[in-house]
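Hey team,

Filing this mostly as a record. A colleague (T.K.) asked me to run one chain through the structure pipeline before their review meeting, and I want the input and output archived in the tracker in case anyone asks later how it was produced. No errors, nothing strange. Just documentation.

Input sequence:
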Amino acid sequence: MLAKAKEAWEQDQVDKQGEKERYLAERIIPLRTSGLSFSQLQDLCRELHEKVEIVDEERYDIEAKCIHNTREIKNLKLKVLDLRGKFKRPPLRRVRVSADAMLRALLGSKHKVSMDLRANLKSVKKEDTEKERPVEVGDWRKNVEAMSGMEGRKKMFDAAKSPTAQ
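Output structure:
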């Protein structure tokens, strides 16, 4: 695979070189300086200098545009990074909204039906729940002292064995 990539790269280099040579052959005409007088050679040199100056001006303009665009891209990238850093997504909080308020928000003024969801719930008396769970309040220190050390572990082990023995 690397060999194929290397061959493709070399072929691209050869193609680019051939294209460059063809372009230069079209744009540059060969100079014929033999048989020209001194004044004709000076005129030819002046013409060549003028062409070189024009090409240098174009190159300079293109280079300046390129530098300007590069600077602008860099500044825009910095702005994007700044904007990303400034706006953090806030953590979402739970909002308590009743069903009526939700329907009003969704339907607007068309909402006329009232939904009371709590009316359908089963009512539970508080006294019933307290009777079901008798709470034993004892001195927790006695329990901790009784279960500490090896004796407490032996009691726990014996307690675990005794229900299975019966």
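Quick notes for T.K.: The chain has a mean pLDDT of 79. Residues 54 and 86 are 48 Å apart (CA to CA).
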